[in-house]
Amino acid sequence: MKAAHSVSDLVASGLMTPEAGAAVAGVAERYAVALTPYLLETLAGAPEGDPLHAQYIPSPEEAYTAPSERADPIGDHAHSPVKGIVHRYPDRVLLKPLHACAVYCRFCFRREMVGPGGEALSPVELTAALDYVRAHGEVWEVVITGGDPFLLSPRRLAEIVGALAEIGHVGVVRLHTRVPVADPARVTPELVAALKTDGLASWVAVHVNHAAELTAEARAALARLADAGIPLLSQTVLLKGVNDDAAVLEALFRALVRNRVKPYYLHHPDLAPGTSHFRPSIAEGQALVKDLRGRVSGLCQPTYVLDIPGGHGKAPAAAAWIAEDGTVEDFQGNRHRYEP
Ligand SMILES: *Cc1c(COP(=O)(O)O)cnc(C)c1O
Ligand code: SF4
Fold first, then answer.
1. Is the model's pTM score more than 0.85?
2. Does residue 253 belong to any structural domain of this protein?
């Protein structure tokens, strides 16, 4: 099976009717569409209303941009000192070597920046980005994101990771990717080996939103990373109609921990254009997070976060457990007085 890069490919694959395809023609002109052969096959056997479907198949609802939505929802541009670098927090930077992804998620927070037309950093630009990190001794962690860095060849990944390892003040490289669940066969032993180097610790954060994404192939890809000694984290976007349900989140976080992935962040969806149909309210998110406390162990608890629009960074979004009157709520909803 070939990858899908357009609505007509999705119609040809049988995942959309011609009528449904016609209804999203305008949406697909504005926001990139792509599914890997692996996902096309996974979806071909999935029932209507499948949690993967809504994440990847364009919907007419994307045509509506809510007044609060913006092209750069988390203010990347405001904090980009050189092309490919976002430096918002003192001790860490984002490095974005490319803008392409294996798949295009319908709720993507960088949907106005990622896409097949978005070029990779040229060798000169990459050198300049690495020079920036080298010149900033306060940068301890480099988060390689994009786009999806796992689309780079193992040779190019090894070059970037190796260059960072030579910068004495950089202790950690973290790669953010959707490839283990979007194109698991791409996580080859060569790619895994390319992530590891002496001189720094490599971590991988995988973007997963539903336990159904952890197929046998995806679990095997995660195992290749974990067996190589790479610590794994997850990022999940809280999405209406996909995972805004405590039982669904419980199943996801258990499955992640079972596969040696520590749930790291549960993101409240950013104000990306054409995504309001995916966004629950913060109060709904807080209720789900509270419910999870009583359902799963601490290993399975991510931090619920909101990226503050405008580039002010992330803020924990869970409701307070300790009230202003000094009482503390337990996992069953009972309040207790705490007297130090
Ligand atoms: C999210 C983000 C990071 C990483 O933040 P952590 O809380 O350390 O995961 C770093 N830089 C920017 C610009 C970010 O948006
Ligand atoms: S993989 Fe990440 S960056 Fe790429 S489309 Fe999905 S959410 Fe956006």
1. yes
2. yes
